[in-house]
Amino acid sequence: MRIAVLASGRGSNLRALLDARAAGRLDAAFVGTFSDRPGAGALEIARAAGIPAHALPPRAYADRAAHDEALFSAVADVQPDLIVCAGYMRLIGDAAVARFAGRMINIHPSLLPAYRGLHTHQRALDDRVPVHGASVHYVTAALDGGPVIAQAEVAVRADDDAERLAARVLAREHRLLPACVALIADGRLRQLDDAVALDGTRL
Ligand code: GRF
């Protein structure tokens, strides 16, 4: 399976995917890493691993749609079977979502459907929830709203702050994401063009 990774930040989830491949837990070829931020650590990690790394900063394009089109055309050029959003922090427009329906997944640091969007750890702490975590889900037009593939739970501690909680969730993300990608790569979780998730979402 050919995998393209989208990432805006430090790239620890990309590193976890590469570690899983090196350890024989993920049978896949990483054919490109794409970022909206030229300085993203994820691009460095990709280059060091010999994976083509592409930066497409939004300011180089007229508007969001034009950036999306350029980014996802570059992604399409590497002919991925699966696109993994591993800390890609921009909204993805409907056209790109439709183009890769059922072939694009995202990792999000909350137990969806709770806490879509940003600042998930602080929001969980503010609500005093006992359990927080991370989710891997299919990307649909609804922000962080696509069908969930799997989740990892993390118990919230009385002395947690957002940073401490984020660190424990991140450690779980690093196991969850490679496991989900391996499910798909091994054909144990298959998506068809006309698939409909249990909640009625068309994939
Ligand atoms: C992760 O917490 C991920 O869930 C979120 O952004 C963060 C990315 O971290 N969407 P990294 O760049 O993989 O280290």
From TrEMBL:
Enzyme Commission no: 2.1.2.2
Pathway: Purine metabolism; IMP biosynthesis via de novo pathway; N(2)-formyl-N(1)-(5-phospho-D-ribosyl)glycinamide from N(1)-(5-phospho-D-ribosyl)glycinamide (10-formyl THF route): step 1/1
Functional description taken from the UniProt entry: Catalyzes the transfer of a formyl group from 10-formyltetrahydrofolate to 5-phospho-ribosyl-glycinamide (GAR), producing 5-phospho-ribosyl-N-formylglycinamide (FGAR) and tetrahydrofolate.
Entry's Gene Ontology molecular function annotations: phosphoribosylglycinamide formyltransferase activity
Protein keywords: Purine biosynthesis, Transferase
Keyword Zinc-finger: no
Family: Belongs to the GART family.
NCBIfam families according to UniProt: PurN
Record-annotated site: Raises pKa of active site His: 144
Annotated Pfam families: Formyl_trans_N
Keyword Cell membrane attributed: no
InterPro entries for the chain: Formyl_transf_N, Formyl_transf_N_sf, GART, GART_AS
Residues that hold N(1)-(5-phospho-beta-D-ribosyl)glycinamide according to the record: 11-13
Binding residues for (6R)-10-formyltetrahydrofolate: 64, 89-92, 106
Domain Formyl transferase N-terminal: 1-180
Protein name: Phosphoribosylglycinamide formyltransferase
Leader peptide range in chain numbering: none
Reactions accelerated catalytically: N(1)-(5-phospho-beta-D-ribosyl)glycinamide + (6R)-10-formyltetrahydrofolate = N(2)-formyl-N(1)-(5-phospho-beta-D-ribosyl)glycinamide + (6S)-5,6,7,8-tetrahydrofolate + H(+)
Residue numbers annotated as active site: 108 (proton donor)
